[in-house]
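Materials and Methods. Structural model of Bacterial bifunctional deaminase-reductase C-terminal domain-containing protein. The 183-residue sequence of Bacterial bifunctional deaminase-reductase C-terminal domain-containing protein from Segetibacter aerophilus was retrieved and submitted for structure prediction as follows.
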Amino acid sequence: MHISLDGFVAGLNREMNWIKVDEEIFDHVGKRISGTDAALYGRATYDMMENYWPEAGKKPNASKHDIEHSKWYNEAHKIVLSKTLKEADLSNTTIISNNLSDTLNEIKQQAGSEILLFGSPTATHALIQENLIDGYWLFVNPIILGQGIPLFANIKDKTKLKLVSTRQFTSGVTELNYIVERP
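The predicted structure was written out as tokens:
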């Protein structure tokens, strides 16, 4: 997830035009997600992804990133937190509309790789509240927004983290990869 230095994932109006991405970051993310077969989204982020990625790789001017990520997106199992979407209409997609903790823990026990959460601040907040996040993969952008949608909001309990890796990109973005230390 992209984050500002002061902890925001989007501006007050959900703007994300401050996020720095380039081929170096796209290549790194592509390698990281290639070993993952599941993505979790909130409904709004899922709608945004679904409106772009299924066909993005087929466009005549598609970039290397668009082609690779479109292929991955189309093959990945999508998990969507939503009270309005209906699962019957969607292929390779699971909708979680209630019993978040039980349902997600059940999915985590099934065969497959880790589940990556993409964007989705509201979904992230719900997962944090239920203690369902096993790690944080953050891309800290060199900007202070001053206000916006925070990544960490209404935290009930302390969460200890262990830094697993860092990487600085030439754009000034720094990747921080943490795992949650469970008692």
